[in-house]
Design goal:
By secondary structure, this protein is α+β, with helices and mostly antiparallel strands. The chain has 9 helices and 8 strands. A 6-stranded antiparallel beta sheet has the order 5-4-3-8-7-6, with helices on both faces. The protein is elongated, with a radius of gyration of 20 Å.
Length: about 250
């Protein structure tokens, strides 16, 4: 493939990442300023590789981005693209930092972050994973599972009796309220709140987290928690709508 051909493929992938709702062949060709025939060949190749999906109505939608590998086969590229505007709105509403996280085994992995435009803010390196029971995102994702799942996690993580008891209380709180506030984060001086994002299959697939400097966060925790919960619910509803549209198109 020529250098120009590679550029066009990358242009198409990047366009899909920014357009998670999908589009028709005509719309894609027009957006990328290429002949329909050329666009169709690229779309067919990307579909064969599992990067995009063609619905029954003829539209193309992003499934995953190149290089994405996870134990459960999660399509994180599509998830990040869909969640990003919701996350940005939550950050704007709260004035604190926003993160999207997933549970991989016993650990929380952060996929994305959006920082507020203010001088004093909370930031974290999203490359290292965190033990699930130590962060708000992990608690809500564990809470979304069964009691047996929580107990299995506690056993595998060799939690002390005190840690085990705290986890049970945290899980109960998260289940009752639909979110969880961690007033003393892993990072000293930080606090955060998280809520689960539920996939079309009814299972939690990610968590939305808003974190900030502890003193400022705690003084506004009720408002932040409500934004977190409402935003996670809105994303969950969007995932359900997308699933219904795909089912109708098949």
């Amino acid at each position: 493939m020529s250098g120009r051909g590679v550029e066009r493929v990358l242009d198409m992938i990047e366009w899909f990442a920014a357009s998670p709702e999908g589009a028709s062949l005509s719309e894609i060709a027009a957006a990328l300023a290429m002949p329909k025939s050329s666009a169709l060949l690229m779309l067919q190749s990307l579909a064969e590789r599992g990067y995009i999906h063609r619905t029954g109505s003829g539209e193309y939608q992003l499934l995953r981005l190149p290089g994405e590998i996870s134990a459960d086969g999660g399509n994180y590229g599509a998830l990040i693209a869909l969640v990003s505007p919701y996350l940005s709105n939550a950050v704007q509403e709260t004035g604190e930092s926003g993160f999207i996280a997933v549970l991989e085994g016993p650990s929380i992995r952060y996929l994305n972050k959006v920082l507020p435009k203010r001088e004093i803010l909370y930031d974290r390196d999203i490359v290292p994973t965190r033990a699930a029971h130590k962060v708000a995102s992990g608690v809500v994702l564990l809470a979304a599972g069964s009691d047996a799942d929580v107990e299995a996690y506690a056993a595998a993580s060799t939690l002390s009796k005190e840690e085990h008891s705290k986890l049970r209380d945290a899980v109960a709180s998260a289940r009752a309220s639909g979110f969880y506030v961690n007033a003393m984060g892993v990072v000293e001086g930080a606090a955060g709140a998280a809520a689960p994002i539920i996939g079309a299959n009814g299972k939690a697939i990610a968590a939305l987290n808003i974190s900030g400097p502890q003193v400022r966060f705690v003084s506004n925790s009720d408002r932040i928690s409500e934004v977190v919960r409402e935003t996670a619910v809105a994303i969950t509803e969007e995932l359900a709508r997308r699933s219904r549209r795909l089912s109708k198109g098949r």
